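Moderator note: this is an archived Q&A kept for reference. The question asked for a predicted structure of one protein chain; the sequence and the answer are reproduced below.
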Amino acid sequence: MTLSNRSIITGLVLLLTTSLIAPSAFADNHEAKIKAYIESNIRAWLSSEEIINAVDQQNINHFGITEEEIDRLDQRWRMERLRNSGSLISSIMGNQFSAFLRGIKAASGGVITEIFVMDNVGLNVGQTNGTGDLMQGDEAKWQKTYLVSADAVYIDAVEEEDGVNVSQVSLTVARPNTARLGAITIGINVDAL
């Protein structure tokens, strides 16, 4: 093996080793940055009257909702998404609470890419961007927060979305007395932190 072949092989080994190590190092780094952002920015508005009241009201409205009713709502949401319109999507995307969430997103200066809030069964209450489905209760973002504790935080892996590195952070929505009401998921542009 010539010296130049050895150099190429050594370079490839270093590149492969670095690419295998870098994602976990990046993941650790993004989680620390997101935790700091949660404490310095998100906690300030997470227990706002707007969020607590909106989730609480939907919990009252959906008291006793059955799995079949949840499935019907979720299927309706998906059909309306395919058509790009419908009364269910309009009722959530056009409500005052979703407008409040869009204001938070806009005020973040590009750090927040999306926000959606779920009730105590995992149905969306309000959102900034349209989600693919209405029911989030079967996903980790709801199960690892609302079902766990009032102060639970779940930080997902970084994924590229339209050229932006985004991690979804989910937290439990709770009253100050720690009564759990629902959950919130916030897309964070990790490069903007």
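Archived answer notes: The chain has a mean pLDDT of 88.
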